[in-house]
Automatic annotation (TrEMBL):
PROSITE patterns: GLUTAMATE_5_KINASE, PROA. Residues 343-607 form the Aldehyde dehydrogenase domain. One of its GO terms (molecular function) is ATP binding. Transmembrane segments: none annotated. In the N-terminal section; belongs to the glutamate 5-kinase family. In the C-terminal section; belongs to the gamma-glutamyl phosphate reductase family. This is Delta-1-pyrroline-5-carboxylate synthase. It is found in: Mitochondrion matrix. Pathway: Amino-acid biosynthesis; L-proline biosynthesis; L-glutamate 5-semialdehyde from L-glutamate: step 1/2; Amino-acid biosynthesis; L-proline biosynthesis; L-glutamate 5-semialdehyde from L-glutamate: step 2/2. The lineage of its organism: Eukaryota, Metazoa, Chordata, Craniata, Vertebrata. It comes from Pagothenia borchgrevinki (Bald rockcod). GO terms for cellular component: mitochondrial matrix.
Length: 780
C-alpha cells in the first residue's frame, strides 16, 4: 500500500511542485511565537513549548535489519509525526542517515543485474552460477543513494501537503564563518517558508573522521549525532530528538543484568555511565550520542535520546516527547532538589519490607500514634488546610462538591482518628495469617499465608482525608506506599505526610510511605510496571478511566463509574421507599455510592406512592430525567434522559419503569456499572432472587446504597470500591491489600520420594488454620 501511494505521488510530482510554488507566493499564515532562546528546558513538561525542533534519525532507525534498503513503514510513521508538528506551527528539521544503505541497495541490484547479463551472454543460458557482490565503497553508495533518499522523503511529505528541501553539509561548512553564515541563512529562509529541511552529511565527498579533531569549544562533525548537535545549536533549536535503536541512555550496556534506563541525565553524572558497543550500523555509538547531546545542552538546546525502531512506539515517539511524556532519556542541566520517583519507589520498597517483618503490635502502635497525632496537631493541620481552601476559593476553579471534599474540620479529624484506631486493632491479625495448612506427608507441611502486595501507588484528588486513611491501611498490611495527591491539597497533604512519617519513625520505617511531590505526570507514574505492584485511584470517574487507560502492566483497583440503581418492587413498603430513596440520592449526591437511576415497578405508576416519590424529589430539588418507558406513560413527562448509563454526581437522577424484578435485573446488567444496587420489597423470595441474580459488587435489600462504604462495613477505612472480578471486590479495606504465598516445611524431601520407585506417600491431611506462622511473634 505504501509503495503504491509513493508511486502515485511520484506521478503527480509536477502538479505538487506547482502547488508548492503557488503556496510560497502567498502570504504565510501566522504561527505561534517561539520562546526566547536563552537556555535549555529544565523539565520534560516544558518541552510542549518547543518551537524549533531537530529530529535526528540514526542509521538503525532508517535502515532495514539487513542494512540494504530503508525501513519504509518506520520512516512513514516518523514523517507523519514530523508533518503533524510542522502543521501545528512548529519549525521542524530532520538530520537523516540512510543514503549509504539506500545506495547500497541500488548498487547491489545494478551489479547483480549486470553480472546476470554478462553470464547469460557468455554461457548462452540464464542460469546464474556463483554470483557474488563485491564490497561496496561507502562514498559510492552515498552518491547513489542521496537522490533516491530525498525523493522518498519528498514523496512521503507530499501526503501531508508539506514541502521539503535537501541540504548536504560537511565539516567545512561549520568551520568556515562565511559558509556557516550562508548555511544558517539558507535554513532560516526555508523555515520561514514553512519548508522542512532534510539535512545530511555529504558522504560522497566527506573524508574519514579524524580522532580527537574537535576544535576548542566546538564539536567536530564526525557523524550525524555531532551534525545534529552542531546544527541544533547553530539554529538555536529548542529541542533535539535523537532517535536510535535503544530506549535511551543506560547506566551500563543494555542487556546486562543491572542495566538501568536513565529517565533524566545530568552533565555531572558522566562518571556513572559504562558504555557498550556501538549500533549495528552507523558511525557513532552511545558515547558519541551523549557527547553530542551534552554539547547541544551546553549550547542551550534540550535533548532527548529515544528508541525510534520499536514497533509499538515508533508511531508516536516524537509526538510523545514533544508532549512531555516520559520517553527515552531527557538531558537536563538542572538537577531537582528532591529525590527522583524511582529513588522514592526503591526506598519505599526497602522500608516496606522492614515494615512487613515488624511484630504486629509494632505496626498497631504506629497507626495508633498517627491517630493521636491527628488530634494533637489539629491546629497545624487545619491551618494548612485553610491555606488550600483560601487558594481554591480565590481561584474559583473547584466545584462545590470538590470544595467540600477538600475541607477538613475538627469533627472530620476526630472521625479519622477513630477509624485509624479500628485499623490498628485489625492490624494485629493481618500479615502472616495462615489461611490453609496441609500435612502433605510425614514431616512435610504446607501453609498458605497472607503477605503484603508490595508497593502501592494511590492517586487521589482534592481529598486530604484520604492520606491518613490509606497510610494506615498500608501500614497495617505491611505495604510500601506512594501517594500522589492533587495540587489543590498540597499544603494539607504535606503536613499529613510529615505526621505519617513521624509515626513511622518510632520503629525505624519512616521511608515506607512516600509523598510524590515532583512534576511527574500521572501517566508517567503508571508506566513504572517494574517498580509499582498496584495502583489505586481515588477520585472522579474520569480520573479512574484515565488511569485505567494509561496503566502499563500494573493492575488498577477501583471503579470507573458509580451508576447505582434502586429498584422499587410492587410489594415495597411506602415508608421504606421514601426513606431509602431519599438517603441514596440526597445524602451525598457526589459520592460514588449515590443512586443514579431509580427503577419503578409498573404497578406503582398512578398510585400514591409514585406521587410521594415525585413530591420528595421536588422537595429535595432533585431533577428527574425520564427513561423512554416512563416518558411513554406520562402525558407531561420530565426531560427525557439522554442516556440510561449516566453518572450525574449531583441532585439529578434517571427514573425508569420496568414490568418485573427480572426486567429490573436485566436493566441493571445492561446499564449499570456493577457497583452497588438495591431492591426495596417486602417479598422475601423476590428479594433473594434479586440478591442472587445480580452480579454487582454490592447488592442490598431494603437498605440505602450509601452503605457501600468501608467504614460502615466495619473495615475501619477503605482505599476505594472495586468493581473488578478478581482480587478484592466492593469496599476494599485491609484484606484487599494482602495477597498470599505458599510456605513448605520439609525434612530433606524430594519429588523422587513420591515417585513409583519412592518410599513415601502423599497424605494431604488438612490441619487447623488461623494461627500465625510458627515462631513469627517470637522472631520479632
Amino acid at each position: 500500500m505504501l509503495l503504491r501511494r509513493l508511486t502515485l505521488c511520484s506521478r503527480n510530482h509536477l502538479d505538487y511542485r506547482r502547488r508548492v510554488c503557488g503556496f510560497l507566493t502567498r502570504p504565510l499564515t501566522q504561527v505561534p511565537k517561539g520562546r526566547a532562546h536563552v537556555s535549555s528546558f529544565a523539565h520534560r513538561g516544558e518541552l510542549r513549548q518547543a518551537k524549533r525542533i531537530v529530529v535526528k534519525l540514526g542509521s538503525a532507525v532508517v535502515t532495514r535489519g539487513d542494512e540494504c534498503g530503508l525501513a519504509l513503514g518506520r520512516l512513514a510513521s516518523i514523517v507523519e509525526q514530523v508533518a503533524m508538528l510542522q502543521n501545528q506551527g512548529r519549525e521542524m528539521m530532520i538530520v537523516t542517515s540512510g543514503a549509504v544503505a539506500f545506495g547500497k541497495q541500488r548498487l547491489r541490484h545494478e551489479i547483480l543485474l549486470s553480472q546476470s547479463v554478462r553470464q547469460a551472454l557468455h554461457s548462452g543460458q540464464n542460469q546464474l552460477n556463483d554470483m557474488s557482490v563485491p564490497v561496496l565503497e561507502a562514498r559510492a553508495c552515498a552518491a547513489a543513494g542521496q537522490s533516491g533518499l530525498m525523493a522518498l522523503y519528498e514523496a512521503m511529505f507530499t501526503q501531508y501537503s508539506t514541502c521539503t528541501a535537501q541540504v548536504l553539509v560537511t565539516n567545512l561548512d561549520f568551520h568556515d564563518d562565511q559558509k556557516r553564515q550562508n548555511l544558517n541563512s539558507t535554513l532560516q529562509e526555508l523555515l520561514r517558508m514553512n519548508i522542512v529541511p532534510i539535512i545530511n552529511t555529504n558522504d560522497a565527498v566527506v573524508p574519514p573522521p579524524e580522532p580527537n579533531s574537535d576544535l576548542q569549544g566546538v564539536i567536530s562533525i564526525k557523524d550525524n549525532d555531532s551534525l545534529a548537535a552542531r546544527l541544533a545549536v547553530e539554529m538555536k533549536a529548542d529541542l533535539l530528538i535523537a532517535l536510535s535503536d535503544v530506549e535511551g541512555l543506560y547506566d551500563s550496556p543494555p542487556g546486562t543484568d543491572d542495566a538501568k534506563l536513565l529517565d533524566i541525565f545530568y552533565p555531572g553524572d558522566q562518571h556513572t555511565i559504562t558504555y557498550g558497543t556501538k549500533s549495528r550500523v552507523g558511525i557513532g555509538g552511545m558515547e558519541a550520542k551523549v557527547k553530542a547531546a551534552l554539547w547541544a545542552l551546553q549550547g542551550g538546546t534540550s535533548v532527548v535520546i529515544a528508541n525510534g525502531t520499536h514497533p509499538k512506539v515508533t508511531g508516536h515517539v516524537i509526538t510523545d516527547i514533544v508532549e512531555g511524556k516520559k520517553v527515552g532519556t531527557f538531558f537536563s542541566e538542572i538537577k531537582p532538589a528532591g529525590p527522583t520517583l524511582e529513588h522514592q519507589t526503591q526506598v519505599a520498597r526497602n522500608s516496606g519490607r522492614t515494615l512487613a517483618s515488624l511484630h504486629p503490635d509494632k505496626r498497631s502502635e504506629i497507626i495508633c500514634h498517627l491517630a493521636e497525632l491527628l488530634t494533637e496537631r489539629q491546629e497545624e493541620i487545619l491551618a494548612a488546610n485553610k491555606m488550600d481552601m483560601d487558594l481554591a476559593v480565590n481561584t474559583g476553579l473547584l466545584p462545590a462538591a470538590m470544595l467540600k471534599r477538600l475541607s477538613l474540620s475538627p469533627a472530620k479529624l476526630n472521625s479519622l482518628s477513630l477509624g485509624l484506631h479500628q485499623i490498628a486493632v485489625a492490624a494485629q491479625d493481618s500479615v502472616g495469617r495462615v489461611l490453609r495448612r496441609t500435612r502433605v506427608a510425614h514431616n512435610l507441611e504446607l501453609e498458605q499465608i497472607t503477605v503484603p502486595i508490595g508497593v502501592l501507588l494511590v492517586i487521589f484528588e482534592a481529598r486530604p482525608d484520604c492520606l491518613p486513611q490509606v497510610s494506615a491501611l498500608a501500614i497495617a498490611s505491611g505495604n510500601a506506599l506512594l501517594l500522589k495527591g492533587g495540587k489543590e491539597a498540597a499544603n494539607t497533604n504535606r503536613v499529613l505526610h510529615q505526621l505519617t512519617q513521624e509515626a513511622l519513625s518510632m520503629h525505624g520505617v519512616k521511608e515506607a510511605v512516600q509523598l510524590v511531590s515532583t512534576r511527574e505526570e500521572v501517566e508517567d507514574l503508571c508506566r513504572l510496571d517494574k517498580m509499582i505492584d498496584l495502583i489505586i485511584p481515588r477520585g472522579s470517574s474520569q480520573l479512574v478511566k484515565n488511569i485505567q487507560r494509561v496503566a502499563k502492566g500494573i493492575p488498577v483497583l477501583g471503579h470507573s463509574e458509580g451508576i447505582c440503581h434502586v429498584y422499587v418492587d410492587a410489594e415495597a413498603s411506602v415508608d421504606k421507599v421514601i426513606k431509602i430513596v431519599r438517603d441514596s440520592k440526597c445524602d451525598y449526591p457526589a459520592a460514588c455510592n449515590a443512586m443514579e437511576s431509580l427503577l419503578i415497578h409498573r404497578d406503582i405508576l398512578r398510585t400514591p406512592l409514585f406521587d410521594q416519590i415525585i413530591d420528595m424529589f421536588r422537595t429535595e430539588r432533585v431533577k428527574i430525567h425520564a427513561g423512554p418507558c416512563l416518558a411513554s406513560y406520562l402525558t407531561f413527562s420530565p426531560s427525557e434522559a439522554k442516556s440510561l448509563r449516566a453518572e450525574y454526581g449531583d441532585l439529578e437522577c434517571c427514573m425508569e419503569v420496568v414490568d418485573s424484578m427480572q426486567e429490573a435485573v436485566d436493566h441493571i446488567h445492561k446499564y449499570g456499572s456493577s457497583h452497588t444496587d438495591v431492591i426495596i420489597t417486602e417479598n422475601e423470595d423476590t428479594a433473594e432472587q434479586f440478591l442472587q441474580m445480580l452480579d454487582s459488587a454490592c447488592v442490598f435489600w431494603n437498605a440505602s446504597s450509601r452503605f457501600a462504604d468501608g467504614y460502615r462495613f466495619g473495615l475501619g477505612a477503605e482505599v476505594g470500591i472495586s468493581t473488578a472480578r478478581i482480587h478484592a471486590r466492593g469496599p476494599v479495606g485491609l484484606e484487599g491489600l494482602l495477597t498470599t504465598k505458599w510456605v513448605l516445611r520439609g525434612d530433606g524431601h524430594t519429588a523422587a520420594d513420591f515417585s513409583e520407585q519412592g518410599t513415601m506417600k502423599y497424605l494431604h491431611e488438612n490441619l487447623p488454620v488461623g494461627q500465625p506462622l510458627a515462631g513469627q511473634r517470637d522472631s520479632n
